[in-house]
Design goal:
Layout lengths: L1 H6 L1 H22 L26 E12 H5 L5 E19 L5 E7 L1 E6 L6 E4 L3 E4 L4 E5 L6 E7 L4
Antiparallel strand pairs: 1-2, 2-7, 2-8, 3-6, 3-8, 4-5, 4-7
Amino acid sequence: MFQYAEKSGFGRGLLVVGVLSGTILGASLFAGNASAGECPADQTKADAREPVGVSAVGETDTVIATIDVEKEQGVDGRVLRMRRLEIEPGGVVPWHSHAERPAIIYIISGTVEEYASNCAVPIVHKAGDVTAESKDISHWWKNTGEEPVVLISADLPKS
């Protein structure tokens, strides 16, 4: 489906964005087990975790669609971007902030641990989970399992 969207231009890319958005919304609203792993209430605190200098290892990040929302909707300096990420066993997505880049992540397969700035313990995300990454989040991810993790990320980076 995603390769088809890449080769079919803007209209197909927009269709993929709409279908995925509907799938994510439907999963989060109607399936009780489709919500993301969360930080336990007693482990949530500001600055619970300091930035770490881990490097990207075993991750593949492929942009599958973009929309210039400045041209489309008048949102200055932003693009809507959808990416497919694969994290191999032992792979790492390095520490990063969402202060200026909100995102929604949908875990397609595998299990991955998130080490968030506002949680003293790792947060486990499994296939079917959806998680929103807001301006208050900085974090890094690690695949501690034995199978690759595949996820879709939709975000609004500066162009």
